[in-house]
Every structure is written in C-alpha cells, then in structure tokens.
Amino acid sequence: MEVGKLTVSLRDSSGKGAARKLRTQGKVPGVCYGASESGRIDPLPITVDVKQLRGALDPVRKRNTVINLTIEGGAAARTLHALVKDIQIDVLRHDVTHVDLLAIDPNKEVRANVPIEFVGKPKGSIDGGQLRIVLRALGVRAKPNDIPIKLVVDVSPLEIGDVIHVSAIALPAGVTSVTGRDLAVVTCAAPEAEETVEPVEGAPVEGAAAVPGAAPVAGAPAAGAAAPAAGAAGAAPAAGAKGAAAAPGKDAKGAPAAAAAPAKDAKAAPGKPAKK
C-alpha cells in the first residue's frame, strides 16, 4: 500500500446479497464519477478494498488526499485522479459500507471542506467567559494540490461578547472561501447566571412542623376545633335564644322544618280556646 495510490475494479453485480458477499472479503461497493482531463466521467460501479483505501489516504490530509486511481476491468485499465467524496459507515458496527470517489482534473479548482483548529485561551475566560465554537470546518475552492491541510484560528484576543467571522480567517494564496463571509466561526459568550428561588415571606414550608403559639393561617380551622359536619344545612342558633328554631337552608330539599306546625285536629293549649 502506498499513500495516494489506490486500485479498484469494475463491479458487475448489485444488491444486498452481492454487497454482503463483498464485505466478507474485506471489500465494499462504490461508485466513481466526475470529470478528468479528457472530459466528463459517467458513474462507474466499482469494488473498493477498505484496507487499501485507508492506506491510500494521507494521515494529515485525510479525505482531501489526491488519489492516483487505477480502475481495472473492461477492455483496459484506466487511470484517474480522484478525491474521496463520501464514505458511508454502519451506525452499529462502524464498518464502511459504501464509498463515493470523485474524479477530478488536477488543473481545475474543486470544492473541499478544510478543518479549523482553534488555538489560545480567550481573554474573556478570566471573567468567566465561555468559548462557543460554531464552525469546525470551512468550505473552500482551490486546485487539488492547493487545498490546505487545516486552518488555524487564534482565539486569544476574544473578550466576552466578541465574535470571529469567516471573513477574518486568513486563507493561503489560490484558496477562496465558499462559506458565507458573515457567518460566525467562534465566540466568547458571557457566563450563564444561576437562577435562585427566594421563598415567599409568610408562606408555609412543605414538611415543616407547626410552631407552638403561632397564629393560624387565615381561613384555616383552629387547632382542636371540630370540623363542621358534611352537608350541614342550617346555621347554629344564636347564643341565649330560648326555643328558637334553626332556619332551614334555602338549598336543602325535603329537609324537615325545625318547628313543626300544629295539626288541625290537635287540642288547644290549656287556657286558650281552640280556633274553629
């Protein structure tokens, strides 16, 4: 295996069964498309050896490595320059499942994503400021051999509230940004204030025992007082009233009157003649 060189073969089968069979051999299905010095290249189904692909990528440039690609199969072998466009990885097993290779013309500009490295300690951190990273990679346009390995951003001058935008990043010669110039890259944010809940004066604390001698809360029954009977209709008679009957409640239906009216045939009280 050599960095920057990869050999693949044309693939004549497709489907889950064929892909499963390739994976048992350490290979995965892929596709190659794009343009070369000779013109446009239609999508070519290929078979990629995963171990050889990893060996072909530069440890520093990674996916931005320009690969000398040899495609075997067909009438004759074909040589192209390519970049890794996409690598699909299984979520559970973390295995490579598919590879997209982009054929390129070394003399023409291509788009690529360049990682951003942040160095230094912001001044605002002395006052509790927190560094917030918004972008970790920058989209650029450049010739394949001019694509930078990384872009370094110094965050040391940042005070609380300061922001570094895309327009402030220095780019090498021959490299232009395709990411919006006004987008924020990193900022030093103010520390988050902690919320404190103050207890309301006079409010009872849940689970606290009653203080002996303390005045009861308005509307609450006094300690030791019997609770009124449920559904009691009438009010209690006034103190000192003799023989006064309790007035029936207005909403009580069918409740007997406090003092029963005398029957028609009842005998008159002694000393008073009965009414005819």
List keywords for this structure.
276 residues; mainly beta; Ribosomal Protein L25, Chain P; RNA Polymerase Alpha Subunit, Chain A, domain 2; six-stranded mixed barrel; four-stranded mixed β-sheet; 2 helices; 5% helix; 32% strand; elongated; disordered C terminus
Describe this structure in words.
The protein is 5% helix and 32% strand. The protein has 276 residues and is mainly beta. Among the domains are: 102 residues, Ribosomal Protein L25, Chain P (Beta Barrel), CATH 2.40.240.10; 79 residues, RNA Polymerase Alpha Subunit, Chain A, domain 2 (Beta Complex). The strands form three sheets. The chain has a six-stranded mixed β-barrel with strand order 1-3-2-6-5-4. A hairpin with a 2-residue loop joins strand 2 and strand 3. It is elongated and about 85 Å long.
Major pleated sheet: 6 strands, mixed, barrel
Mean pLDDT, nearest integer?
79
For the record, the CATH architecture of one domain stands as Beta Barrel
Reported by name, the CATH topology of one domain is Ribosomal Protein L25, Chain P
Low-pLDDT regions: 223-274
| Residues in helix, % | under 10%
Order of helices and strands: EHEEHEEEEEEEEEE
Count of helical regions? 2
Supply the CATH class of one domain: Mainly Beta
